[in-house]
Amino acid sequence: MKKPPEIKINKFQLAVLLDKVNKEFYHFVIANSVYCSNCNAIAVEGIEVDEVFLTDLNDIKVRGRCRVCNGEVARLFEFGKDREFYDKANKLRDLSSLT
Ligand SMILES: [Zn+2]
């Protein structure tokens, strides 16, 4: 099967994709568990999310800035491993290609 391209998604599309458990995990990680290479530590104040992508594996990739040092950070959420999430992400791709 051909891999789909990486696409940028907005926060509304992200909200549609994440179920309750995924959402809680996502927010926990954003606030507590993103590594900042500039601080050389976990971004203790959390991060400011600038861009969200759906990767070719239907994982979620977040780019943002550390709230302590304003350095660039990125984090991958491997939600695409989950079959239900993967299918939901494909449906979102279909819908967004219509617009
Ligand atoms: Zn930092």
Please explain how this structure is put together.
The protein has a four-stranded antiparallel beta sheet with strand order 1-4-5-6. The model has no long low-confidence stretch (mean pLDDT 95). Helices cover 36% and strands 28% of the residues. With 99 residues, the protein is of the alpha+beta class. The chain has one domain. The longest helix has 16 residues, at 83-98. The protein is elongated, with a radius of gyration of 14 Å. The chain is built from three helices and six strands, in the order E-H-H-E-E-E-E-E-H. The protein has helices spanning 11-17, 20-32, 83-98; strands spanning 7-9, 35-36, 41-42, 47-54, 60-66, 72-77.
